[in-house]
Amino acid sequence: MSAAPHEQVDDALRAVRSSALNIDIFPGIAVIYLKARLLASLTLFVSTFASTNIFTIVVMVFVYFIGHLQTTAREYWLQENSAGWITRGFLALVALIFPDLQAFNLVDEMVAGALIPITLFAKTAVLGIFYTTMYALLATFVFCGKEL
Amino acid sequence: MMRFFAIIAAVLVFGVTKLPAERALFVQHRQLHFHAVELNLDLREQLGQLGFIAALSGFRSIVADVLFIQAHVAWERTEWGRVLLLFRQVTTLQPRVVLFWDMAAWHMAWNASVAAMNDQTQPRLALRVKAQREYFALGRDFLERGIQNNPDRPQLYESLARLYKDKYQDHARASEFFAKAAALPGAPSYDKRFSAYELSYCEGREGEAYERLRLLYDEGENQRLPTLIKRLKVLEEKLNIAQDQRIPDRAL
Q1: What is the C-alpha separation between A86 and A91, in angstroms, rounded?
Q2: Cα(B184)–Cα(A105) distance, integer angstroms
Q3: Nearest Cβ partner for A120 among B12, B28, B39
Q4: A95 and chain B: CB distance < 8 Å anywhere?
Q5: Residues A134 and A104 sit within 8 Å (Cβ to Cβ)
Q6: What are the tens digits of pLDDT across the range A8-41?
Q7: pTM greater than 0.95
């Protein structure tokens, strides 16, 4: 390889560097952290009105799955006009109540070699912080009303 | 009771507030070709219940990786039907990973096609050739769909060009796809040369090929590689280029 043309050596080095640890991985880690924080605050909120641990866990498992499908429900609700009002009402409820967890799955794209634009990362981070704050506030509000 | 309704109202107000932000993010994801996976009933049938649930719950890339390993095992066992099925699932789950499309096409057009041609259980040559062509077509289909999903990456254009060159002996299409690869950012510098080489084999396009090869030659020493010089010499003879316009013999 040392005898290869300068251009070829540069190409090879670029390929090695892009496959190794680079700074692009940190937004992915940060988004995973934000998703974990969001789920933790939502769990806290659910636990304020749940009577048992198992109820909280089961509800959160369902929320986790529904959260990943929220995008599908929201887009169908906003775009599809032929659905009946019961369907649309149900989809609206899913879209309004549950967080969009799919927005935080940037890692799937990062492992495919896609670069995450800084604006997208910033928007996702703001959304994550907004979710976390709101669920934490709601949890505080419910908790304050409890008789200890 | 008032508190309960207040919380419900707060959740709904929060939902309405977050909706535009979620929608804007979704639109940006679509523009960047993120989450281009269509999780429909076809995929559900292919993946099985657990795999589909895993794909739904944010483990799409992990499921794709596991299926890719299974496809590799199926390849080792030369189970071509299973290789095809698994690669279809893998590429559906991770359409932005170029490696998966490239490997799928390679297995179909290079490995499975050769296995079909050497199939001892099929005595009729015509049927073996037919099976081979079907595998070529499968490989081409993977690459074409891969390009649709990754129009900004040069690797798959290059693979498709190699497929046209090696399997279909279609030098015009090979040249076209090498040129498309060369036009994209991050493309290796040889794509431009390869496009010109392939064009030089096309009947009736020798003049165009000569111009492109000559331009590359004139770029400098880096481009003056043995194949380029050899093809230029062949075209100079074929096109009867004047002696004083030919490249020096010592270049060969």
Answers
A1: 9
A2: 27
A3: B28
A4: yes
A5: no
A6: 777 778 777 777 777 778 888 999 999 999 999 9
A7: no
